[in-house]
Amino acid sequence: MQCPLPRIAVLWSALLFGLALSAGTTPALAQAERCPKLVAGNPFLQRLAPRTVPAAYVAPRQVGLTYIGHSTFLIETAGGVTVATDYNDYVRPAMVPRVATMNRAHSTHYSLNPDPGIEHVLKGWREDRDPVHYDLDIDDLWVGNLQTNIRDWRGDTIRNGNSIFVFRAADLCIAHLGHLHHTLTHDDIGALGRLDVVLAPVDGSYTLDIDGMIEVLKSLEAPVVIPMHYFNESTLENFLTRFAGRDYAIERRESPELVLSRETLPRKPTVIVLPPGG
């Protein structure tokens, strides 16, 4: 849905004000509004995006997604932009991505020595706990973030310790929830806007508990949910069992690679389980 241009400034100001009142977020998160409302379906902006070398298996109007493991996915656009989520020193894609996002929680979610060939290293936090704000156009990909809080090992709150990164390409909005530790507010949901794919941590312990994660996923209403951050099959099954019967279909794929497009999104909301090992 396209926002009428005269209303953009009004919506932006209102959203900033609302987010400033939210306990779990900051005004810097408002750029996520752009994913569905300010870019989607805009052919002028699409013509402006230069093309680089495309991924071999990603056709125009498609996005490639490969589950590498833990919380790391490789996202590939038709224009050749590659992203590694929660880039770290333990689980990495074989290729050097153009973009790497990272989160603070544990060393399996960030790297102190990212490959120097990465063009954009996007940390989802600041050491001084002030908000961090991303609003990047990289060829045919847009990247934004919405910050949330995390707990430290004593249970104390670290403000702005996690970012939900939002990626938009081929008119698809993909959200990586990172190391989410709490449910989302009404303002958070509004800032994220329309999401098509949610990459969700489902361990139920180190991140958000299962009931809380189910609440988040229901509120986001994305057609596709892809589990991540589970430590064994029983952890995954616990999430799937609890989520079954909640109007979501469950699909298990044999390949860690998935090609997504707006035209092929499932009509019934679906949890797609990808095996790690991209």
From TrEMBL:
<dbReference type="InterPro" id="IPR036866">
    <property type="entry name" value="RibonucZ/Hydroxyglut_hydro"/>
</dbReference>
<dbReference type="Pfam" id="PF13483">
    <property type="entry name" value="Lactamase_B_3"/>
</dbReference>
<protein>
    <submittedName>
        <fullName>Zn-dependent hydrolase</fullName>
    </submittedName>
</protein>
<dbReference type="GO" id="GO:0016787">
    <property type="term" value="F:hydrolase activity"/>
</dbReference>
<keyword id="KW-0732">Signal</keyword>
<keyword id="KW-0378">Hydrolase</keyword>
<feature type="signal peptide">
    <location>
        <begin position="1"/>
        <end position="30"/>
    </location>
</feature>
